[in-house]
Amino acid sequence: AMRQLPYFCRGEVVKGFGRGSKELGVPTANFSEQVVESFPSDITTGIYYGWACVGNGDVHKMVLSIGWNPFYKNIKKSVETHIIHTFKEDFYGEILSIVIVGYIRPEKNFDSLEALISAIQEDIEEAKRQLDLPEHLKLKEDNFFHLPESKIVNNH
Ligand code: ADP
Ligand code: MG
């Protein structure tokens, strides 16, 4: 799926293109085009799982979608993180730090909204199970999450 996992990434949360993720109950924090460009260009699109932290807050489980960005006529990718946690407020403009740990599945088209929502729920359950494995759990404590906020790092 991706040559170098775990993959460490940090960047600002920007406004997405309002596909109604929040309305589906799964808001996705979007990275800027600049951050997306810093990803390996041969990266496999699809759904991944990992760890995420907003600012210097707590580290939570997440599911991540790397997909084709409709805003750029699907010639550019988008990277969107759904953090498995209920936040009191939105966090646009804050620094999101993520570690991509593993791959779940490729992108798919769904026949119905119900099918899409149940696939997302399954992705979330799979992410939760995977991240409880000792080898994945240890990344939650990685020093990466304790580095100064200002430091933007993409896998180095
Ligand atoms: P957009 O199209 O602007 O990305 P979304 O409907 O995908 O809008 O909502 C994303 C925003 O919701 C994030 O940028 C963040 O500020 C907020 N948010 C609140 N809770 C979460 C969460 N658990 N995971 C990700 N984003 C969240
Ligand atoms: Mg979004």
TrEMBL record:
Record-linked Pfam families: Flavokinase (PF01687)
Coiled-coil segments: none
Obligatory cofactor(s): Zn(2+)
Enzyme Commission number(s) of this protein: 2.7.1.26
Record flagged with keyword Magnesium: no
UniProt keyword annotation of Cell division present: no
Function of the molecule: Catalyzes the phosphorylation of riboflavin (vitamin B2) to form flavin-mononucleotide (FMN), hence rate-limiting enzyme in the synthesis of FAD. Essential for TNF-induced reactive oxygen species (ROS) production. Through its interaction with both TNFRSF1A and CYBA, physically and functionally couples TNFRSF1A to NADPH oxidase. TNF-activation of RFK may enhance the incorporation of FAD in NADPH oxidase, a critical step for the assembly and activation of NADPH oxidase.
Full protein name: Riboflavin kinase
